[in-house]
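Most newcomers find our protein records easier to grasp once they have seen one. Nothing more is needed to start thinking about how sequence determines fold. Here is such a record, shown just as it appears in the course material:
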Amino acid sequence: MIVIGKLRTNVWKGEEAVVERLILEATTIGHDLSRGTSVFSRVERVVVPEGHESDLQAATAAVEAAQGRDLDEEADDEAGAGEPTDRPDTA
């Protein structure tokens, strides 16, 4: 993980000794991509009116199905990259 922010030291006198604590106020947190890749997907929020819990289940299933299709399409695109085709190049 990579963390960007402010690092502070909080020092106070305890009952037996001086106590010191490091405090990190993070403004940005992210993956360290120097050793790999990462994929970010924004989750759509579903607002459900009171008394419509069954609608929530249907909406959740619809969103999950849509996200599954998106991931399947991306996987197909990546799998097809660089593969030879029967079509001649039209450059």
Summary: The first strand starts at residue 2 and ends at 13.
